[in-house]
Automatic annotation (TrEMBL):
SUPFAM superfamilies: Actin-like ATPase domain. It comes from Streptomyces yaizuensis. CDD domains: ASKHA_NBD_FGGY_SePSK_AtXK1-like. This is Carbohydrate kinase. InterPro entries: ATPase_NBD, Carb_kinase_FGGY, FGGY_C, FGGY_Carb_Kinase, FGGY_N. One of its GO terms (molecular function) is kinase activity.
Length: 453
């Protein structure tokens, strides 16, 4: 079983050894927002987990193990028994830095010292009846250095013990069994963040593989033998249970930019009109808000259009293509820093519901693309739970057995998009947002036709 703690809901999935989904459940979550503050109640997480897990078990199947993923950077303080002492500060709370122990220190200043727990840690503690070690994936943004295998600042009070994802860390106790329906004694396996869980569910786990998750925003994650060194600091790496590295980055472009430009519109109807505009009459850099994180860091970046669209369909086409151009630029930057970006590629996220956009992105990238049948983070945690029980010798092999590919999309060609892509690259560099080395590498790759279909 995999349990996924999201921002708006909890999802539980029960999967067989071949990936067949045998049960599922979900329950909503709500938070409190006030200016930069974003908090949730840890008690609500446990209530939602109980509901989702019981729904997933309705068919009568019982899991051999369970693993939990959650949002990256969400923390709370607890007592020595794992009982929450504070609200949870969410990953996008704006009162403290996004990386390092900033959010934990924020809580300690307000509430005093306590055990630092990540969102998933609270649930594993409730399942086991005691605090269990956290995993290096959830600990990354709290200041854990997976290369050194140690906390960057061990003087921070309340830091948890850390193990590699996929490690067996405990068992479900009798009290949790009564509340959730999980059998007492069910092994608990150390999980990973929701982004890593989605990557596992995509099956992109062989060295050189990449998963592009396109929803409200765009996230790329891949597999390398060593963590790539990024002088711009926009790529970070998680440690895989296999000992490989999972580098990636998150852009602020994505579907949110389309929603902001066309609120309440019918995407399917606009997709149909966009077919007549390849390439579009304008070049777009689509952002849902202010600032960019990947493939470059520019806090002051804003959306723009170069040229004037001839119609709503042309404008929509420019936005679809603009997101795909940013996706291509992300891969160019990854290639620049030594993270080979020309291996197998999967698409996941809400955008794959648009067959047109999926085909367009494949053509802009000039890449064959695989679409998994199920790409929920909860499935990724079910795969990790299977690894923890010894069902496969490596995570990649466990995923190969449990992840099914729904379809493969092969581009017909992409040459007509090269000119508008390089126009966007030029403009991003002119505005001093895109570093010159990344811009130059993008041009070199375009000239050398690396993206040949």
């Amino acid at each position: 079983m995999g349990i996924d703690l999201g921002t708006q809901s909890v999802r539980a999935l029960l999967a067989a050894a071949d990936g067949t989904i045998t049960g599922g459940g979900s329950a909503p979550l709500a938070g409190r927002r006030a200016g930069p503050r974003h908090e949730q109640s840890p008690a609500d997480w446990w209530t939602a987990v109980r509901t989702a897990v019981r729904q997933a078990l309705d068919g009568g199947e019982r899991p051999r193990a369970v693993a939990v993923c959650s949002t990256s950077g969400t923390v709370l303080l607890a007592d020595d028994d794992g009982r929450p002492r504070t609200p949870a500060v969410m990953y996008d709370d704006g009162r403290a830095p996004g990386r390092g122990p900033g959010r934990a220190l924020l809580l300690q200043r307000e509430y005093g010292h306590g055990r630092i727990l990540h969102q998933a840690d609270l649930i594993t503690a409730r399942l086991a009846g005691r605090v269990l070690p956290t995993d290096s994936s959830h600990a990354l943004k709290t200041g854990y250095d997976p290369e050194r295998g140690a906390w960057s600042d061990p003087s921070v009070p309340g830091l948890p013990a850390v193990v590699r994802p996929g490690t067996l860390i405990g068992e479900v106790d009798r009290a949790a069994a009564e509340e959730t329906g999980l059998p007492a004694g069910t092994p608990i396996v150390a999980g990973m963040t929701d982004g890593c869980a989605a990557q596992i569910a995509s099956g992109a786990l062989a060295v050189g593989s990449w998963n592009s998750v396109l929803g409200t925003t765009l996230v790329l994650k891949g597999v390398t033998t060593a963590p790539p060194r990024d002088p711009d600091g926009v790529v970070y790496s998680h440690l895989s249970p296999d000992g490989h590295w999972l580098p990636g980055g998150a852009s602020n472009t994505g579907g949110g930019a389309l929603t902001a430009a066309f609120p309440g519109a019918d995407p399917a109807a606009l997709d149909e009109g966009a077919r007549a505009h390849e390439p579009a009459g304008a070049v777009a850099y689509p952002l849902g808000g202010r600032g960019e994180r990947f493939p470059f860091a520019a806090p002051d970046a804003t959306a723009f259009l170069l040229g004037t669209p001839a119609s709503a369909a042309d404008h929509w086409a420019a936005l679809l293509q603009g997101v795909a151009f940013v996706e291509r630029l992300c891969l160019d930057h990854l290639d620049l820093i030594g993270a080979a970006a020309d291996g197998p590629l999967t698409f996941t996220g809400g955008a794959v519901r648009s067959a047109y956009w999926t085909r367009l992105r494949a053509e802009v990238l000039g890449r064959e693309v695989r679409i998994p049948a199920v790409s929920e983070p909860a499935l990724g945690m079910a795969v990790l739970a299977a690894l923890g029980t010894g069902a496969a010798p490596t995570l990649a092999e466990a995923a190969a057995r449990m992840v099914r590919i729904r379809e493969t999309v092969r581009p017909e060609g992409h040459g007509r998009f090269t000119e508008p892509y390089l126009t966007l690259v030029d403009e991003l560099e002119r505005r001093a947002w895109l570093p010159a080395p990344t811009a130059a590498h993008a041009r070199t790759r375009a000239d050398s036709q690396v993206y040949r279909s």
